[in-house]
Design goal:
51% of the residues lie in helices and 0% in strands. The chain is mainly alpha-helical. The chain has a domain of 55 residues. Helix 1 runs antiparallel to helix 3. The chain is elongated and about 30 Å long. It starts with 19 loop residues before the first helix and ends in a 16-residue tail after the last helix.
Length: 85
């Protein structure tokens, strides 16, 4: 590539116009919001995805994984999926 970066790799923590810390903070905010309103959001997610194949627990786990990949947490939530979050 002309800029010396490798394809598929983020060349700079600020890539995309938003620092990694802000992106991981947004993911954490969304995960916390999902925990705060389980009853209403579970029904809404079920309606949105068209069934119960994907639920809030899975969505929270995905958000935790993405946050970890952005170095926004130590990955601990990934190893304790049965604890309420």
């Amino acid at each position: 590539m002309p800029d010396g970066s490798q394809p598929g790799r983020e060349p700079h923590p600020q890539a995309g116009g938003q620092p990694r810390g802000e992106r991981s903070g947004l993911l954490q905010f969304l995960r916390d919001w999902l925990v705060a309103d389980d009853d209403h959001l579970e029904e809404s997610l079920t309606h949105f995805v068209g069934g119960r194949a994907y639920n809030l627990r899975q969505l929270r786990n995905d958000l935790d994984r993405f946050t970890f990949l952005l170095h926004g947490n130590d990955g601990e939530p990934l190893f304790e999926p049965d604890l309420p979050r």
